């Protein structure tokens, strides 16, 4: 819980949050209780901010230290006093009637009071424990302050309300804090062991959801409404181009490396390729499969009639990848067999790369959207994680695109070239399986890699466009994100395990069956490093 007892932080964030308003009554535009529901049309006149509720004017005697708000909303009663919020409930101001003297603090009465407290004041220390008064009753604040200086203790807690059988009040910093009458014991309803606070909001798979204060993830009351957050639009637009440059660097770097230094960098490229394999496998299981499972377990979706929904969709993605590659390979082999003297422009290797890129693109556009719609408090953390995610995924895809039409030194010594295949009137299965994609120039490779570089920034642009409407806990949104994540997971499982891992290490023509022990060790190290690094990033994205 944010420490509600640090007024220095509260002052920095909220300005003078207890600013007093005095009304000049010209006509009434209030609720039935005589209190306005909001004051608007605020303007500065002679260095004083004036706001209106209907035709009633209110003068702000002490304004926030930050930019002056144009309105104050959510006006409500604390006992007999009326308060309004500003800056999305970050600050609170007191409204006084025109003929009443301005209040400088929440008053305390020694008169006998009954029922539940609406506010507590005259807060003081007993040792290191904070107590506040409600009438003649003393209440303990169930939080230990880190700063026990007398001037570090808030003078009052307001807007007291019930959470079940417990009573909570709002601190000057806007947090919910529990209070307990002297001699009573606080109920132990928090199964997570954390202190209650207004709402516990966090991110699953980049989507924010909240549970009530003091409630556990499994037992809490889930809020499925859109959570309104602060969004720094210029920052998001600027970082969109940072993601674009990083994605382009990751996917283009291996292509330029193998074209400019094909011989000298063979071992480095081999290790980098295995690093990319580890990235793809970790992305499939830790990021996509797990995130899809979290989406379909979201309480806002409702209870699924079939618990294996996520696994079923992942299997569909695996089968879809297999089917596309199988049909593509049969098509290529039939064309080569029918025309032995002609080298097909579409090879099984090209089909594999296209399937891999589709699996990456499906979830990359979702990454862009969920990055942008994250609140400012989490945005920069998520951005840094996505930045590395995109660079590593780009390297994984770029190494496979770079190798189109290329042969490794071991393949060159064990397999015929394309010109040799052209001279064969009856091509063998081995020659068909080893056929590499012909005529893949640098420009063609860059064009093939470009969709990956562009798709996440496109997702971010879409997210910026729907920023004020996007609700990650909407049922249709959950189904769409969960389904695309699960399908993408299945595609990457097939490509990562079968076409990348097994193809490089286990098949009869596998390059790593013929490398030296030292090169094999470094390749294995790259594979494991890719898995570990991407799995660690899965903690945040």
TrEMBL record:
Q: Where is the signal peptide?
A: 1-19
Q: Where do the record's region annotations for Disordered lie? A: 406-432
Q: Where is this chain's protein located in or outside the cell?
A: Membrane
Keyword list, A-Z: Membrane, Signal, Transmembrane, Transmembrane helix
* Entry annotated with the keyword Membrane: yes
Q: Which GO terms fall under molecular function for this chain's record?
A: zinc ion transmembrane transporter activity
Pfam families, A to Z: Zip
Q: Which domain of life is it from?
A: Eukaryota
- Asked whether the UniProt record includes Signal among its keywords, one would answer yes
InterPro entries named among the record's database cross-references? ZIP
Q: Which residues cross the membrane?
A: 233-255, 267-289, 309-328, 446-466, 478-497, 518-538
- Where is this chain compositionally biased, Polar residues type? 415-432
**One term under GO cellular component:** plasma membrane
Membrane topology reported for the UniProt record = Multi-pass membrane protein
Query: What is the protein named?
Result: Putative zinc transporter 8
What lineage is this protein's organism placed in? Eukaryota, Fungi, Dikarya, Ascomycota, Pezizomycotina
Give the gene symbol. ZIP8
């Amino acid at each position: 819980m944010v420490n509600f007892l640090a007024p220095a932080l509260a002052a920095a964030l909220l300005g003078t949050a207890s600013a007093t308003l005095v009304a000049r009554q010209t006509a009434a535009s209030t609720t039935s209780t005589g209190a306005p529901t909001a004051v608007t049309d605020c303007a500065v006149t002679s260095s004083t901010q004036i706001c209106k509720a209907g035709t009633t004017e209110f003068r702000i005697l002490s304004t926030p230290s930050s930019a002056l708000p144009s309105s104050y909303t959510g006006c409500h009663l604390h006992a007999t006093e009326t308060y309004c919020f500003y800056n999305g409930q970050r600050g609170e101001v007191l409204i006084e009637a025109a003929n009443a003297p301005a209040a400088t603090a929440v008053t305390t009465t020694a008169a006998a009071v009954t029922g539940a407290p609406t506010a507590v004041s005259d807060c003081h220390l007993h040792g290191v424990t904070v107590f506040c008064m409600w009438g003649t009753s003393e209440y303990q604040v169930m939080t230990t302050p880190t700063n026990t200086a007398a001037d570090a203790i808030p003078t009052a807690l307001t807007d007291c309300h019930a959470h079940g059988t417990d009573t909570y009040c709002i601190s000057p910093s806007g947090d919910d804090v529990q209070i307990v009458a002297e001699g009573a014991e606080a109920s132990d309803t928090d199964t997570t062991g954390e202190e209650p606070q207004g709402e516990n909001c966090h991110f699953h798979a980049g989507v924010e959801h909240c549970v009530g204060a003091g409630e556990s993830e499994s037992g809490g009351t889930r809020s499925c409404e859109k959570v309104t957050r602060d969004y720094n639009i210029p920052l998001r637009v600027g970082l969109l181009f940072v993601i674009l440059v990083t994605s382009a660097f990751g996917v283009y770097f291996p292509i330029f490396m193998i074209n400019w230094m094909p011989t000298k960098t063979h071992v480095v490229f081999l290790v980098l390729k295995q690093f990319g394999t580890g990235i793809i496998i970790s992305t499939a299981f830790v990021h996509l499969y797990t995130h899809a499972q979290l989406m379909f377990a979201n309480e806002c979706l409702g209870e699924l009639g079939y618990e294996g929904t996520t696994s079923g969709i992942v299997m569909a993605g695996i089968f879809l990848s297999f089917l596309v590659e199988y049909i593509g390979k049969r098509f290529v082999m039939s064309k080569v067999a029918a025309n032995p003297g002609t080298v097909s422009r579409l090879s099984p290797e090209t089909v594999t790369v296209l399937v891999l890129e589709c699996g990456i693109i499906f979830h990359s556009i979702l990454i862009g959207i969920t990055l942008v719609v994250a609140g400012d408090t989490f945005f920069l953390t998520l951005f840094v994680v996505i930045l590395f995610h995109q660079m590593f995924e780009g390297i994984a895809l770029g190494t496979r695109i770079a190798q189109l039409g290329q042969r490794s030194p071991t393949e060159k010594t064990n397999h015929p070239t394309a010109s040799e295949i052209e001279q064969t009137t009856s091509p063998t299965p081995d020659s068909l399986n080893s056929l590499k994609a012909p005529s893949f120039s640098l420009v063609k490779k860059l064009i093939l890699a470009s969709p990956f570089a562009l798709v996440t920034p496109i997702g971010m642009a879409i997210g910026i466009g729907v920023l004020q409407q996007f609700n990650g806990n909407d049922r249709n949104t959950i189904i769409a994100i969960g389904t695309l994540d699960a399908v993408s997971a299945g595609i990457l499982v097939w490509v990562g395990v079968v076409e990348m891992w097994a193809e490089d290490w286990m098949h009869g023509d596998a390059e790593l069956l013929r490398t030296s022990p030292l090169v094999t060790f470094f390749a294995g190290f790259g594979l494991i490093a890719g898995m570990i690094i991407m799995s660690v990033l899965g903690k945040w994205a």
